[in-house]
């Protein structure tokens, strides 16, 4: 009955979000309350699980999410990300630009929220598309979508990556080592495969491209921003992002190599590293856009942070209730055979749950958070490293971003695409990326035990 009630709770959450248009936060809490009460946990134990689950995940990743979103808001306001993308356009040959754009978004931009990334990168992708001989807009649109979401789910400090790692208690340094490799390979192969599809007639400009009022408004806003103030140099724009990543990476490698100490552990801690990045972005923003604009950007970032923290926290609540029901022991028995098969089955299970949730809910982050909340209680029962489960969830959460996603419509408008064009680009590349990354996660499972 526990498994049945868990299935009912998950289906109910999806139904409330999709059909009834209930906010994910409310739907997740209702699902958690139903599951706790229906499974016999009782009123007191259910509410304790909801609150403790929320608090536990906030203790792990609350500051990371807050620092990352605020840093992105400040970089956005001073035009730092646009400086990065424009520099890319200047130095990369036209036929390599989609690869460079995808890799830059995958590796450098995950600290910036995905909505901000597409707003800033879309005009540059459109303006540079004319330098690519055939289907330039389509290829760059696909590369842009690929890069944004490969970074979002695989690369620290992407919010989905941080949330999934936190829910499964995976050290961020460990996740970063595996995730950045998988993210880079996935992005590169996806852009290459998508180009082959375009060459074989996948794209029809007459049906798949259109003018966009939203695009014109964004381009006008960018022009006003350029005329109204200074922007940081490329080195300064990159510093708040690159320095924290280097600090986290150094701390992780130092721990693996066995020469860590308290000082290295302190500065290699993701909370400290991202705070220093935020501090650097704050000082830069005060210099380039002034005190008032900096305060406005900080306020915008705080609004975004609150929403993300709530949905992440209630994802942790659902996971705590699932754990409290005893479902972990029940499902753990399905993987008790001591062979290599359970590893593959566990990876496929995590991937499938995340993919199904994404198809139903339309949010990469909510799908990943919910899947991690479902898998976390049984993670200790599975013969597979938690980092591999987290990566499998990330891979599944990528699957087929489409019309039930707010990002889909923003992407469509800013790139100047029809609905058909957005489906042929964004939905296609996220599907490819999900399928490409799955065998890479399976390959990583062979390496994870050796790294501890």
Question: Describe it for me?
Answer:
By secondary structure, this protein is mainly alpha-helical. It is built from 21 helices and no strands. It has helices at 2-18, 24-38, 43-77, 80-91, 97-107, 114-128, 136-154, 159-167, 172-199, 205-208, 213-228, 234-257, 262-268, 270-288, 290-325, 327-332, 341-361, 364-379, 386-397, 406-415, 419-451. It is globular, with a radius of gyration of 22 Å. It starts with a helix and ends with a helix.
Weakly predicted, low-confidence segments? 331-341
* Overall form: globular
Query: How widely separated are the two ends?
Result: 36 Å
* Helix count, DSSP H or I runs of 4 or more residues: 21
Helix content: over 70%
What is the number of E strands? 0
* SSE class: mainly alpha
Largest sheet, strands/sense/barrel:
none
Task: State the oligomer.
Answer: single chain
Q: Write the H/E string, N to C.
A: HHHHHHHHHHHHHHHHHHHHH
- Strand content is under 5%
Radius of gyration: 22 Å
Mean pLDDT: 83
Features:
452 residues, 81% helix, 0% strand, 21 helices, mainly alpha, globular
Short description:
With 452 residues, the protein is an all-alpha fold.
Strand and helix layout:
Elements: H1 2-18, H2 24-38, H3 43-77, H4 80-91, H5 97-107, H6 114-128, H7 136-154, H8 159-167, H9 172-199, H10 205-208, H11 213-228, H12 234-257, H13 262-268, H14 270-288, H15 290-325, H16 327-332, H17 341-361, H18 364-379, H19 386-397, H20 406-415, H21 419-451
Helix pairs in contact: 1-2, 2-3, 2-15, 3-8, 3-14, 3-15, 4-6, 4-12, 5-7, 5-9, 6-7, 6-20, 7-8, 7-9, 7-21, 8-18, 8-19, 9-12, 9-21, 12-13, 12-14, 14-15, 15-18, 17-18, 17-19, 17-21, 18-19, 19-21, 20-21
């Amino acid at each position: 009955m526990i498994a049945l009630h868990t299935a009912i709770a998950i289906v109910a959450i999806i139904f409330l979000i999709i059909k009834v248009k209930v906010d994910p936060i409310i739907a997740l809490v209702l699902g958690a309350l139903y599951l706790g009460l229906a499974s016999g946990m009782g009123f007191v134990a259910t509410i304790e699980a909801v609150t403790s689950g929320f608090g536990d995940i906030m203790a792990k990743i609350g500051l990371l999410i807050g620092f990352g979103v605020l840093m992105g808001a400040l970089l956005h306001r001073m035009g730092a990300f646009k400086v990065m993308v424009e520099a890319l356009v200047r130095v990369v040959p036209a036929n390599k630009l989609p690869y460079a754009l995808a890799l830059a978004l995958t590796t450098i931009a995950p600290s910036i929220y995905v909505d901000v990334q597409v707003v800033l990168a879309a005009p540059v992708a459109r303006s540079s598309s004319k330098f690519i001989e055939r289907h330039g807009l389509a290829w760059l649109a696909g590369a842009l979508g690929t890069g944004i979401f490969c970074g979002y789910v695989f690369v620290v400090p992407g919010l989905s990556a941080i949330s999934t790692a936190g829910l499964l208690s995976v050290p961020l340094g460990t996740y970063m080592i595996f995730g950045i490799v998988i993210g880079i390979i996935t992005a590169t192969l996806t852009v290459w495969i998508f180009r082959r599809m375009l060459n074989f007639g996948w794209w029809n400009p007459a049906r798949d491209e259109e003018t966009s009022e939203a695009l014109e408004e964004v381009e006008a806003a960018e022009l006003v921003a350029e005329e109204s103030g200074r922007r940081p140099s490329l080195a300064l724009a990159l510093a708040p992002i690159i320095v924290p990543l280097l600090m986290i990476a150094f701390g992780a490698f130092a721990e693996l190599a066995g020469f860590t100490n308290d000082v290295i552990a302190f500065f290699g801690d993701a909370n400290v590293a991202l705070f220093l990045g935020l501090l650097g972005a704050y000082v830069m923003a005060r210099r380039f856009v002034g005190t008032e604009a900096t305060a406005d950007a900080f306020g915008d970032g705080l609004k975004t942070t609150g929403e993300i923290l709530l949905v992440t926290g209630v994802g942790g609540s659902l996971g705590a209730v699932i754990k409290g029901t005893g479902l972990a022991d029940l499902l753990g028995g399905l993987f008790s055979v001591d062979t290599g098969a359970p590893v593959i089955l566990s990876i496929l299970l995590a991937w499938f749950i995340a993919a199904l949730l994404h198809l139903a809910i339309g949010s990469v982050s909510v799908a990943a958070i919910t899947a991690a909340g479902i898998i976390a209680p049984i993670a200790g029962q599975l013969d597979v490293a938690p980092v591999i489960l987290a990566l499998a969830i990330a891979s599944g959460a990528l699957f087929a971003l489409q019309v039930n996603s707010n990002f889909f419509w923003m992407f469509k408008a800013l790139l100047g695409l029809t609905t058909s064009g957005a489906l042929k680009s964004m939905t296609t590349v996220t599907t490819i990326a999900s399928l490409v990354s799955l065998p890479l996660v399976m390959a990583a499972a062979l390496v994870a035990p050796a790294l501890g």
